[in-house]
Amino acid sequence: MDLILARDDRGAPEIFRSIQGEGPSVGRPRTFIRLSGCNLHCVWCDTAYTWNWLETPFAHERDAPDAPHKFNRVQEALRVEIADIAAMVAALPSEGVVITGGEPLMQRAALPALIDAMRVDQAALRIEIETNGSIAPPQDLADRVDLFVVSPKLAHSGNDAAVALRPEALAAYAALPAAVFKFVARTPADVAAAAGIARQYAIARARVYIMPEGTDSAVLDSRALLLSDAIIAHGFALSPRLHIALFGAARGV
Predict the structure, then answer these.
(1) What is the pLDDT of residues 12-64, one digit of tens each?
(2) pLDDT tens digits, residue range 170-181?
(3) CA 12 to CA 146: how far, in whole Å?
(4) What does the DSSP assignment read for 110-177?
(5) What is the rounded CA–CA span in Å between residue 233 and residue 151?
(6) How many domains does the chain have?
(7) Residue 21's domain is classified under what CATH number?
(8) Distance between CA atoms of 202 and 175, rounded to whole angstroms?
(9) Cα(53)–Cα(136) distance, integer angstroms
(10) How many whole angstroms separate alpha carbon 95 and alpha carbon 57?
């Protein structure tokens, strides 16, 4: 069994060890596995090389009139056997693994086998999955995951709410004790929209993180300040993007 992974700048599978820059595990060492493919198409996505293929109609804020922000699927994605992924992860030991994307749940059928393979030699390995929350996790996956970091996409992402905010999927994650919610925000109105979703699905404030959108420290700092009053008023947590401050907007970091 295999999975489709993104490629790093060298063309190798994007599996790397770094500091988690976002959400409840911020600052902790993690080994990351970036899967390719996504069912949503955020206009500001900083990993568009996982989904914004040539000949697709999806818009991106980095589009230029004569140079759309597109990628060649053959050059950006590759199939890797689960045993090989597990071996690469074992060679980069840390206290936990983050499966990210793209949207990992698009390959949900293979994820339980991947987790089992990674835990053969590390039974206590912590598994975290970053997801956009539009696909409910099957039970055999939920049983194996220590933390789901769910990032529902708000209107400023450019996605149709009917596709991005699926009630059955959001309700499933809200019912999981091992799930937190991380909303990307640009304005205080986005924080209010996140609060509305939290109320709708009875998500406790302690499970909600607000993360400013941006790929450079100056923008992130200014947006964090802009959002801070609304975050405080709603009792949410502010998530940084620590990896941007440390390493910039590069792959494999």
Answers:
(1) 999 999 999 999 999 999 999 999 999 999 999 999 999 999 999 999 999 98
(2) 999 999 999 999
(3) 27
(4) GHHHHHHHHTSS-TT-EEEEEE-SSSPPPHHHHTT-SEEEE----GGGT--HHHHS-HHHHHHHHT-T
(5) 21
(6) 1
(7) 3.20.20.70
(8) 9
(9) 25
(10) 40
